[in-house]
Amino acid sequence: MTARAFLAALLLLSAASASAAPYRVFMVIHRTGAEADQGFRDYLLSAGLEVEFTVRNIEGDATRLPAVIQEIRARPPDLIYAQSTLVTEGLVGRLGEVDPARHITDVPVVFAMVSDPIASGLVTRLEGSGRNLTGAVHVASLPVQLKAMQSFMPLKRLGVAYNPSEPSQRNMFDKLKQLTAQAGIELVAVHPLGKDGKPDAARLPAMMQALAARRPDLVYLPPVNFFAPHSQLLMDEAIRLGLPTFCAIEVQLEAGGMMGLVAPFYNVGGLAGFKATQILREHRSAAELPVETLSRFSFEVNMPAAHALGLYPPMHILRYARLRER
Amino acid sequence: MSATNDGSLSRGRIWKVSLLPTLLIVATLVAASLQASRLFEESLRPDLRAKAETLAQTAALQFHRAADLGIPVNRLGAADAYLDDAALGHEEIRYIGFASPDGHLLYASRHLRAKPASFFDKVLKAHALEESRGLARLDGDLDLVHPVESRGRVIGQLHLGIDATYVEQRLQEIHTDILITLFVTALVTVEVLMALMGLLVLRPLRLLRRLLELGGAGDFTRQARVRLHDEATRALASAGRLVRGLNRRHAALDARAARTLDARFRFGDPKAPAALEEPGTSDLRLPLFVFLFGSELSRSFWPLFVKRLYQPGPYFSESFMVALPMSLWVTAMVVCTPLAGRLLDTRSSRVAMLVGMAPAGLGLFMTGLASSLTELFFWRVVTAGGYGIVTTTALLHVARTSKQSHGARSMGVFVGASTAASVCGTAIGGILADRIGYAATFGVAAALVALAMALVLLLAPDLGPVRAREEAGARPTAASAYLGILKRGRVLLFILLAAMPARLVLTGFLFYLTPLRLHEMGFTEAAIGRLMMGYFIVTVFATPVVSLLADRHGWHRGMMLVGGGLSGLGVLLFASASGSWPLLAAVLLVGLGQALAATPLLASIPPLFAEECAGFGLDALLSVFRMIERVGSLVGPLLAAALLGTSGFVRSTHVLGVGMLALTAGLAAYLFLRSLPPTTPTPKAP
Predict the structure, then answer these.
(1) A316·B79 Cβ contact <8 A
(2) Quick one: signal sequence residues (chain A) (predicted)?
């Protein structure tokens, strides 16, 4: 896919001609600092498109979305970029709950950083959503991730920390439960929900301790939005408690997670940018463009974490893994 | 030199004449082969160490990398499996181990893990003693040590066990291949020389004698067609000129004188004399040999070839699908057999041979290219159909053209060609498959069939229809005769006990189970071919001796029983043998048993079934025999497949062996009962 994207980029570059008016792209982001946003912007610019970007940051707060939607309505852009599942859901609505009064339907939306658009109820199939929506998935599929974990070590008990208040996370958990049951792995789950059913950052250390008490062989950290700002805390706790972690996204690895099967977010943003270019330049319909994930994920191992835990990658993983030695 | 025995005398001469060039050719080949194997030996030896060094360097890379990353060398995960992988695909590498600098074995590949701990102490001691730059000699193995360093510090040693006998084994294999090639070359040379002698010397001389005999009797109507130019044909040509001259002069005589002459002599038309042709039984020998050689090339690897195309399906097991084409072969062959008779009746043996060879050659070629079992089955049936036509044509041609007195010996043309081809084809096919692959070997087979077609065109004279002799005219009653014979329980019982088991063992055991088992044991195609060739060779050498002994001493029944017993024992031995010599011994035993059992079988029919012979004729009785034998060939692979599918190789071989012994015991009981006074008053040897 990346090769095709690159080829398309080259083609577009060579055919670049300054369009009369710049395209207007509205970027709605969950929080700042995601490399996917940069990858998206860079791709559009390197494709020779003249783009005027408007960026709105909701800082993880879904209640700010209606205001953003109103702003979009007031001056409709050519395309909307949505970072994260939460943002995308707020902008276009889950299938079956779409309300043209509250949701965007007439402007194409390209998402990035949605881990499972089907489970999140955004699309029913990946080969073309059928609605004015497409995008790039940044997480490898669960079976592939589970296989990667098992290639590192034989698993008897797997821990998972997730956020049941996010619908996509509940879906992920159900799927994981099924997969581990099939593989004969015991699944130990923890979450940071308080009595009110809402996630509470203050509960995170206790959550990790509860997990450690069950002595799992490995802890899986799915792409939970709520965890993102607290990644460092989670990873430090894991090391302190002697828990090896398997991360689904790069941010968690950067915070000190021990290993993971990840795609660079910058490239995920680039893939979203490729789709945006197809819509803007080639006038393709977002409804027919497939929702895709990068074809290559890299198995990464954080050597400092490995040293700290005294748990080293087996020889076959040493042969192909990307080893972080920071 | 009487007219009846000159054939055998000249045949003996041909043998003598053929021997010298054959020896010369073989001697030249021996010299060249010796030279080649010495060169091979010189180049193979030093390579082993270099290759092991390279392998050690590659295996060391990940240890370097791990050490560079700060991973303690004794905390590496899955390192045993890593070493297993590294050793995989290198036949000469027995094991790879990784030891800490102080000499503790930390990780080891499978073979080394299986050895007792004391083994590695021996390795270390051997290295301490030797001044051999890291190559220690142990009993049977060489141990190469390769230090692994990281950041200027030795972090461990890789130990590679090199199989010291590897070179010897490879050399031995190559020498065997060379020997087999020599043997086959000798056989082929004799075949070609005999065919050429027959064509260039015997045939013109026989025609010349015939011409003179006719002339002596006053018949000048016939002319021999001369196609070649050498001494013998020149003599024939001058005799022909003489006859033509006589005919011309006769034509020039005035009518009155001619009438007087016509009373004493017969003259022909000088412009279009009737052709003098002597249909020789050996016309087809060389083409037949080359054709069978090509067809037999796939013998040693056929089940393996089929197995490779097998895709697991819901209905049929692998062992069944591998056996199926062998049974299809027999069926298609039998179905096409009548076509050969019809072609021979209406056209000529030449046309019939070509009609059979064309689909057989195409079938072989396409079999090599088959990409699915369906295609393979189809082309196999096409090949078998052609094969059936060719072999039946050859048999009928021999039967119809040979003089009665030479019948048995002429049949030898067919038997000799087919046995020599089985020996050559099986052995060379295995070697070819090993070196150039299955598809290319089928290509060679197809090319040989094409060559056989060219030989038919060049050598076999177009004689027109070869009609069945009058005495075979009792055909219409054949069907009823068959039924009548089959209704006789004792005939059927005898066939089932004596004739069918031999076929079952041949197709089920030798053609089906043997290649599969040997492949499973790690034998190469060439080695499988060599082992299977043993069967045919022992048959070649044992058959004449057995016939002689059986005829001289009348040991027919005893030999059948001993043969059946030996076959059964051979099959049982094969099931439990593991090395190549015991396996070869088992195959030879089976071959010897088959030779012992098969040869006296036919001879023992007339005395045993004198009544039926009188009633239905020996021919009908023999046909029924052949028919039921073929049923055995058809059932053999399927039976073996069914056994293999349900109970694995060793047990199914046991069942076959024990079954063979049981049937032989049954035969013994049957023969004993038959020899009791009420049925045959005086059980005298025939």
Answers:
(1) no
(2) 1-20
